[in-house]
Amino acid sequence: MSEARFCGQCGRPLSTRARFCEACGTAVEQNPEPAAPIYAPAPPAYPPSPPYQQPSVAAPSSSAPVKQRHRFHIASLIAILVGVMMLFFALRFPLLSILGSEASAIVTDTRQVIDSSNDRMEYNYKIHYSFQSEDGKKIQSTYQMNKVYNISNLPRIDSTIRVLYLPQLPQVNMPQNQPPSILATLGAGALGVVLIVLSIRGNISGSWGNRRNR
Predict the structure, then answer these.
(1) Which of 96, 163, 174, 178 is the most exposed place for a label (fewest CB within 10 A)?
(2) Which residues are 102's β-sheet partners?
């Protein structure tokens, strides 16, 4: 059954297929066919993603050794060099006695040492001498005589003394009749060992770092 229609201008009833109102002549709108419903496509369904879990890092085993990197500071390097030099000074006479060669040296000068660490009344003298090594090199060196109260005990200039030197390094030499004292040798050797051990263990660099941080 068709629905009754009325004129929108005058309100008179209209016939089913009327295109104009018979009373006032107003055009009548035709009912358009209903448009097909538009269906929006449903969004695709995705499976739910699992919750994010932060990756766990395994703690290092307490039994595994942890390597520590030692950093050598300038103070440690200087202490090691000083320790090596003191050890070399302590072992110089034994090394020259075993591995050294003998040579005749000429005394070129004799002077009393007077400075901040040597007083005039201590009568310390420095003896200058020169010799020729096996390969023909002329080597000049010195040694010191302390507390010489009788100058007649000093070697005269142009006199001859016997020296020991290393053929590979002739700059390392000393008079054969002037070995270092035992106390000086033991003290220098012990102090050199202490400096080297403390530097390797990092004690000197650690104390130096604490000083700088203050």
Answers:
(1) 178
(2) 164
Distance CA 64, CA 84 (A): 35
Query: Whole-angstrom Cα distance, residue 75 to residue 81?
Result: 10
Place of tokens 């096996």: 134
pTM reported for the whole predicted model: 0.52
Total domains present in the chain: 1
pLDDT of residue 82 exceeding 80: yes
Does any domain span residue 6?
no
How far apart (Å, rounded) are the C-alpha atoms in residues 142 and 161? 12
Asked if residue 89 lies in contact with residue 181, where contact means CB atoms within 8 angstroms, the answer is no
Instruction: Estimate the crossing angle of helix 182-201 against helix 203-213, to 10 degrees.
Output: 70
Contact 185, 90 (CB under 8 A): yes
The backbone torsions φ and ψ at residue 111, rounded to the nearest 5 degrees and listed phi first, read: -135, 140
Q: Which token pair is 26?
A: 């107003």
Contacts of 96 (CB under 8 A, 6+ apart): 164, 165, 166, 172, 173, 174
User: Mind listing the pLDDT tens digit for each residue in 36-49?
Assistant: 555 566 677 767 76
Structural domain containing residue 144: 74-213
Give CA angle at 81 (182, 70), nearest 5°.
Answer: 125
List pLDDT tens digits, range 92-137: 888 888 889 999 999 999 999 999 888 889 999 999 999 999 989 9
Strand partners, 111: 126
Cβ atoms of 167 and 134 within 8 Å: the answer is yes
